[in-house]
Amino acid sequence: MDLEMKNRTVAITGGTDGLGLALARLLIDEGANVAVCGRDEQRLASAQETLGARALCVQADVTSAVDCDMFLEATLERFGRLDGLVNNAGRAASTSIATASDDQWREDYELKVMAALRISRASLEHLRVDAGAIVNVLAVSARTPPAGSTPTSVSRAAGLAFTKALANEVAPLGIRVNAILIGLIESGQWVRRAAATGQRLEDFYAQSARNANIPLGRFGRSSEFADVAAFLLSPRSSYVTGVGISVDGGMSPTI
């Protein structure tokens, strides 16, 4: 299926590795231009080499309003338009309510909610030009938070509410806003966790999938996330807005 993304431009926060990088590669394969941001210079350089001439890799911290504005300005200066925004920056910060500090709560909320709010708000005037789209990358814990999953699950729940509220607000402008709720997806953080246990990566993935009772019996691949995200960014999903789509192999107990 042609996603009709040729010569459209998408900005991705946290796009230098993992899910963001997988999505950037797919969008470029579909003919789009992609701008990604991240904080690590080495990862930025590697992403630029991987993605090639249709990509712009910018060093930026999305918790900084100044950096968010700079990232968008650089994207517009390079490509002249903005058709999609992916709020992907984030990290897992799971602990118990009893042990999580106020600073941990503030930092996670700032990264996953306020950063998405700021850059989304700044993008609206550009996205409205040609029926653009926003995709917020969250987690299935936004709907079904297990014990010991805070503050991550709470900030993701706030991100889901933000997705719906923004979708309703900007629908008259022709802008669509959706969320992807990921389950267990292969990524660098899981590779690091496997290494810490001393297990072979394949064994670690298999055991973790069993522990999580994933009906499909395995971790997801970053390419499977990217397929869904690219569809939501594309004109082919022109009647889809205000929803959270789970990409989790069926692990979420909700319908």
First and last CA, distance: 27 Å
Estimate percent helicity. Answer: 40-55%
What name does CATH use for the topology of the largest domain? Rossmann fold
The total domain count is: 2
Shape: globular
Please state the CA-atom Rg, rounded to the nearest Å: 17 Å
Lateral arrangement of strands in the main beta sheet:
3-2-1-4-6-8-9
Q: How would you describe this structure to a colleague?
A:
This protein folds into two domains: 9-185 and 222-246, NAD(P)-binding Rossmann-like Domain (Rossmann fold, 3-Layer(aba) Sandwich); 186-219, no CATH class. The chain is 45% helix and 16% strand. The strands form two sheets. It has a seven-stranded parallel sheet with strand order 3-2-1-4-6-8-9, with helices on both faces. The protein has a two-stranded antiparallel ribbon with strand order 5-7. It has helices at residues 18-29, 41-51, 65-79, 102-127, 152-170, 188-197, 201-211, 222-233; strands spanning 9-13, 33-38, 55-59, 84-87, 94-95, 133-139, 150-151, 176-182, 244-247. With 255 residues, it is an alpha/beta fold.
